[in-house]
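# nightly structure sweep
# worker-07 picked up a monomer target from the shared queue
# config: single-sequence mode, recycle default, output format = structure tokens
# input follows
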Amino acid sequence: MKYMMFVCSDTEPDTDTADYPDIEVWVAERDAAGQRLQGMALAPTSAATTVRVRNGELLVSDGPFTETKEIIVGFDLLECADLDEAIEVARAHPMARGGRLEIRPVADFEQ
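# output follows
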């Protein structure tokens, strides 16, 4: 089953002083296991453009639409047997300590 994992910043990171896991090791291990299909970091929110259409009018603004301290900084597309496996993959991600990871199943509209 495919899961989209949004990698987000957090205003309350882990206070544990132990070293963070190495992201390159995490990526290599997930790729080798076939659990990570794709992933990328995103440019900063200052490079974001928000597009909306209201009453037929195009509204374009710089930056993210919402005012929030937690931002999406990247994503990983995962292939896991089930949610439990996806949670274990997320648990090992370095941003599980410094940020937060949101996991969502990819919708399958052909079922």
